[in-house]
Amino acid sequence: MHKFKVIHTIKEVRQCIKEWRKEGLSIGLVTTMGYLHEGHKSLIDRASEENDKVVVSVFVNPIQFGANEDLNTYPRYIERDAKICEEARANLVFNPESKEMYFEDAATYVNVEGLTTGLCGAKRPGHFRGVCTVVSKLFNIVTPDKAYFGEKDAQQLAVIKRMVKDLNFNIEIVGCPIVREKDGLAKSSRNTYLSVREREEALCLNKSLKKAKEILTKGETYSDKIRKTIEEEITKVPSAKIDYIEIVDSLSLSPVEKIEKSVLIAIAVYIGKTRLIDNFTFEKEK
Ligand code: AMP
């Protein structure tokens, strides 16, 4: 029978993991902030396929939010999340409170340098320090064999891979493709903030990236041209405000002027007050 439970303490997680390990079972982890959608579900499905047991963490991590960001309004709905996890055959949802995760006098943080200076790192100071700290803690609590992350957050995926390598975590990091709505908008818990009109306007992110892909496929090699094409498409929407448009080397995440190998084209755009991100990776044919 499929066993499933929602637990709130580190002690309970460790107990469960210990029992699974005794039976020689493999463990997959999906870390989330909850308000789950098909994007998260694709990670859980993949984890279920590749592991005997799957743990999903649902935790809105306060230390990865900036002072003026949406920590307090971030959508939460644990009962619904639990149902989605159970249906996707996860075995455990770990839903801790902040005080369970952070001691009042916590003084240790995990900081990945270099890869975090551009893109979202430049716009959200302290964000990746918060992400890496909580993910390290979850890795230490759950001790998974594999952990699953979405390519939707491409910089996060690169940063976590580097952290795992640098800190010798014995965990395989699996990147999973972006799941989109039928009309192309990348699924995100933050899409719920959008009004009906903004939801329509938010299509400019994916549309602009599609245009960029078109001209790249036709042979365009100058980042400036790509950036301009994206900018033109986004500025057609009056309520859209560009946070960044970046063309970077997909491994080092440093900006490139001329496209010669694999690049990540990543954008962040405010639609009204909602900040959305999207990206794609382009491999230049030799
Ligand atoms: P979040 O709850 O936003 O922190 O996301 C938890 C995990 O789900 C991260 O690894 C995200 O990259 C991944 N994720 C979020 N949205 C999507 C999506 N549309 N497609 C694929 N993965 C996603």
Could you explain the architecture of this structure?
- This protein is α/β, with parallel strands linked by helices and about 290 residues long.
- The chain has a six-stranded parallel β-sheet with strand order 1-4-3-2-5-6, sandwiched between helices.
- The protein is built from ten helices and nine strands.
- The mean pLDDT is about 95.
- Helix 6 (about 125-140) packs across helix 7 (about 155-165) and helix 9 (about 205-215) runs antiparallel to helix 10 (about 225-235).
- It is globular, with a radius of gyration of 19 Å.
- Adenosine monophosphate binds near residues 32, 33, 39 and 178.
Round the Cα radius of gyration to an integer and report it.
19 Å
**What strand order characterises the main sheet?**
1-4-3-2-5-6
Largest sheet: 6 strands, parallel
Can you tell me the number of structural domains?
Answer: 2
What fold name goes in the CATH topology slot of the largest domain? Rossmann fold
Helix content: 25-40%
CATH architecture of the largest domain: 3-Layer(aba) Sandwich
- Please provide the ordered H/E string of secondary-structure elements: EHEHEHEHHHEHEHHHEEE
Mean pLDDT: 97
State the name of the first-level CATH class of the largest domain: Alpha Beta
Strand content: 15-25%
Beta strands, count: 9
Report the total helices. 10
CATH homologous superfamily identity of the largest domain: HUPs
Give the names of the bound compounds: adenosine monophosphate
Low-confidence stretches: none
Concise account of the structure shown:
With 286 residues, this protein is of the alpha/beta class. It is globular.
